[in-house]
Amino acid sequence: xxxxxxxxxxxxxxxxxxxxxxxxxxxxxxxxxxxxxxxxxxxxxxxxxxxxxxxxxxxxxxxxxxxxxxxxxxxxxxxxxxxxxxxxxxxxxxxxxxxxxxxxxxxxxxxxxxxxxxxxxxxxxxxxxxxxxxxxxxxxxxxxxxxxxxxxxxxxxxxxxxxxxxxxxxxxxxxxxxxxxxxxxxxxxxxxxxxxxxxxxxxxxxxxxxxxxxxxxxxxxxxxxxxxxxxxxxxxxxxxxxxxxxxxxxxxxxxxxxxxxxxxxxxxxxxxxxxxxxxxxxxxxxxxxxxxxxxxxxxxxxxxxxxxxxxxxxxxxxxxxxxxxxxxxxxxxxxxxxxxxxxxxxxxxxxxxxxxxxxxxxxxxxxxxxxxxxxxxxxxxxxxxxxxxxxxxxxxxxxxxxxxxxxxxxxxxxxxxxxxxxxxxxxxxxxxxxxxxxxxxxxxxxxxxxx
Amino acid sequence: xxxxxxxxxxxxxxxxxxxxxxxxxxxxxxxxxxxxxxxxxxxxxxxxxxxxxxxxxxxxxxxxxxxxxxxxxxxxxxxxxxxxxxxxxxxxxxxxxxxxxxxxxxxxxxxxxxxxxxxxxxxxxxxxxxxxxxxxxxxxxxxxxxxxxxxxxxxxxxxxxxxxxxxxxxxxxxxxxxxxxxxxxxxxxxxxxxxxxxxxxxxxxxxxxxxxxxxxxxxxxxxxxxxxxxxxxxxxxxxxxxxxxxxxxxxxxxxxxxxxxxxxxxxxxxxxxxxxxxxxxxxxxxxxxxxxxxxxxxxxxxxxxxxxxxxxxxxxxxxxxxxxxxxxxxxxxxxxxxxxxxxxxxxxxxxxxxxxxxxxxxxxxxxxxxxxxxxxxxxxxxxxxxxxxxxxxxxxxxxxxxxxxxxxxxxxxxxxxxxxxxxxxxxxxxxxxxxxxxxxxxxxxxxxxxx
Amino acid sequence: xxxxxxxxxxxxxxxxxxxxxxxxxxxxxxxxxxxxxxxxxxxxxxxxxxxxxxxxxxxxxxxxxxxxxxxxxxxxxxxxxxxxxxxxxxxxxxxxxxxxxxxxxxxxxxxxxxxxxxxxxxxxxxxxxxxxxxxxxxxxxxxxxxxxxxxxxxxxxxxxxxxxxxxxxxxxxxxxxxxxxxxxxxxxxxxxxxxxxxxxxxxxxxxxxxxxxxxxxxxxxxxxxxxxxxxxxxxxxxxxxxxxxxxxxxxxxxxxxxxxxxxxxxxxxxxxxxxxxxxxxxxxxxxxxxxxxxxxxxxxxxxxxxxxxxxxxxxxxxxxxxxxxxxxxxxxxxxxxxxxxxxxxxxxxxxxxxxxxxxxxxxxxxxxxxxxxxxxxxxxxxxxxxxxxxxxxxxxxxxxxxxxxxxxxxxxxxxxxxxxxxxxxxxxxxxxxxxxxxxxxxxxxxxxxxx
Lengths: 451, 451, 451
Prior knowledge:
Three copies of one chain form a homotrimer. By secondary structure, chain A is mostly helical.
């Protein structure tokens, strides 16, 4: 403890305290403010990152709640390990691919991790870069964890573990570098950065990428036993709506880190505006999906209503910094409707996505990215989108980003999953699927009864 | 993303960065500090607001845990939708009623939402106002969600949805404007603001209002089938103490946003003092209710102990900024005792409140508001209350606020619930109540067993 | 509310606002920055403290999930009440012992008095001291709550209540004052402070102390009925892996307050570096324990994998501020392996610790404290540990701290538990243990089925 205090003193002395000794000047005061501003920005970014980390718990609960009790240990382990393994993979490889000046030159820096070569400056850890790194790390973890739900209840654990490493090391960061690579180093210009692509917090970069990877996975796997029989879609109900609802509350909370935190700065208070647009898209998504299910099924359905809020949140993620509250509500309302019909559509074409991850993250991520080209407003800090006199150019850029995101994430994941299928096998045996994955994959039960 | 960065630069240039170009002066340094202070205040208020938002999850879990499994989907949907719908209603109407300069003049501003006319200044979103708005919004959501528990297990979903909109649009903000309306605009002076009413974070404004609305609802509904038979009170046990306990932990956490965040400022570090008083009232409430149940029932009861912590939290909400730790402990101890006897009292007069919401929020909210007139101390930033040489004046003001709060919230809610009862009907059928609301209201079960 | 606003103005006027009136000088600007820096430090410390508070929920869920349904109310009540009672005890006695002016300097025993005597300065609450107090309070609560798991499923509730008071009032703060007493007042010099002991956030001070207290408790109690029969270790499975996993996610989140928040300052952004090392040790612990169970049991086990992440977190707590990411990963990897073999070892010697608390907190706390002497690096703000050219001196100091921590926490707790055993009795009756503690200790069930 003593040592840290000395360290803190040492750091602090570069800021305000040194000025107690040196004569006070306007320059030294401005420098002290600048130092505190940096530290406040890092603080906000880290706190936001902690909230985003907590989304891992939200995903785990939503996916566990929406699937059967016999596969719960498996779902929990997948959600737990994708972040643990993903952390290591992103540190070793992914971060440098996404933000490093050149991938190859990074390798020679004498470190086992490519990230270290970016984080350690003059032999010392750089707090601004560590801040950026932890924030980007939890984003990578989010993309990875989305896949878990779409492939639930029939995937071998070892395959999911391998894919988690590959998506955080390669699939996610390669597209991320196209769209966001100037964030760390202004000289890095990904293709979509140059084009002016708006994806503020990652409707496409994080959510669609995760969703399309899940789509590839569920297609390669095929549907669960008993889901589609005699031309009918048979419901396979999740086992616990209480934890699913808790999961959605946690995700909503986490999104207050995800979107507002993507400012990585307190400058201008933009984070507050984003918090509001984020909240209203979520609220609107919940309302519209509830109404749609009420009309379609005569009763307000809990599962789709919960997914409606997530649909609104995913959709507002790209445009959150550039739209008004009214636009955020429209974006959320459309997301909430879209997710219901998307879930019904994928069931119709027999793509079995147990938790609706492809619809929520893939489809609504695409919608949100397009919406940025429609609803962005100069008054809210963006270019003008189509509906605010901005012409069709921005919309075309958005469509381009959506298209490249789909081709890359779906394509790369398809290759990986096919590779796994034809080598170690991707799907558990029929017996295991019927008995549940918990016993045979883990030797555990989620809810044992022990006397 | 690029656009946001440009935006951030633009905002920031009004603060410190512009001074790199302009000559450094003491004035520019002071202005840079003032800008960072504003941003830090907004940051704290937003983070506190996120914690208050998370209380929605806490309420959902407490209410679900304290009621039966057959009504769990219904409780979850109520807690989820009251915030979603309440957000929209508060934006459309409630916020402008509570804080707008005049209600009527606000309507003409060419926006579908009354709030927008207060939030957008010179055609641009004002971050200080967005910050204030999101913080007030989550408070309105809290008042709404309290009602859900008191009316659990027998209310039609559609009625609850309608009431959620009405409380956030009208019932809550009208009383709120009496007590807090100077917060947004110093020229707005609600009657209780003028009188010097102390309700720092809303023991009355939020909690009692929610509690008394719930009391009106449960009286109009009547007790659940089987609760009172042959002059006896029969226990109807909740189905999951684990999630109820988790809910209380989440609420306790959320209260660290609710009370300390009501400073909406880091100035003077008052938030830290409030965090301490808040924690000690909660701890004391848990301890005293545990002891009372241990004496009454010979065993320490979990349900009432959990409610005891909430009682302490509700009670400290009004006086939290103006009392010492010792006083906070006394306020919490009394709250913890009060809630046990209040729960027993309401059962005695056959007012069936399944989760104790009226006792926790209504009764202990009143107690806390009165306690502010007893325990406030100048040394802790308040006037002196009765026990610290302050005379009876402040106490009378507190009693007036409690009284007006009761008359308004109970009266207005009674009118609404009676109106609903005699039009579309407020209570589900006897058959539905016995079978559980989940199937007939939602077509869902909370814990399905699917093979 | 009005009163608080006046208060805020009054406080604020000592900072920036007064300078609007006084002539702007470089000194006044520097003073304004210094005020805002203080407030920002307090804000960060309080927010971190809120996250640490939330760890109480994490511990409650982990312990409830890893034990049987018939003892769930008991576990929840223990986890709830140890913080409530611990708050009061730490305020009444513990805080002053830990940080008060030392009666016997060196040995570490401060004044026995109300915390108030340290918190109220010149008749007014000091926000910097309130900030420090709430942060230390939630740490004391953590040490107390660890014990609950080790003694689960067979301890009388009243004994646990008494022990909770004693550990927060005496056991924890006396060792804490040896290691950390200088934090509040630089003139306080505990023996280990003088020796240069590194335990940044409490691998030993908090976790080992809690773990060794639990070890004493479980030894005095003896194993649960049916755990060790005919030379075999029979599994007694926990009842809910979903809530256990949620508990670990919450603990991981809370640790972002525990370790980074122990800076109690934003100065230099050290918190960001600590957030990264903390995360990587957790991730590495989860990975290595998963791999070890996969090898040992042929399947990746959920319970030990979850404990592996906790092992990594406990281990990094001492060295988190002074090691590189690579070292953090090694420390976590070792922790994850260690916890598995430690759990097997304690079962082998028939020490029955239902949730693995002794292994996670005691053993891995010791490992982490030793690791600080091995992996600390000057570049990361520490002295150099053995592996970075630092010689054996620091390692010997670390071993000394580990040893004193064990002797004190185990010894003092053993005395207390033996005292309780031979007076009021420590263990429930055989009948009660078989029937479950919930009914006989609390008159409650965790999961009642009410029609």
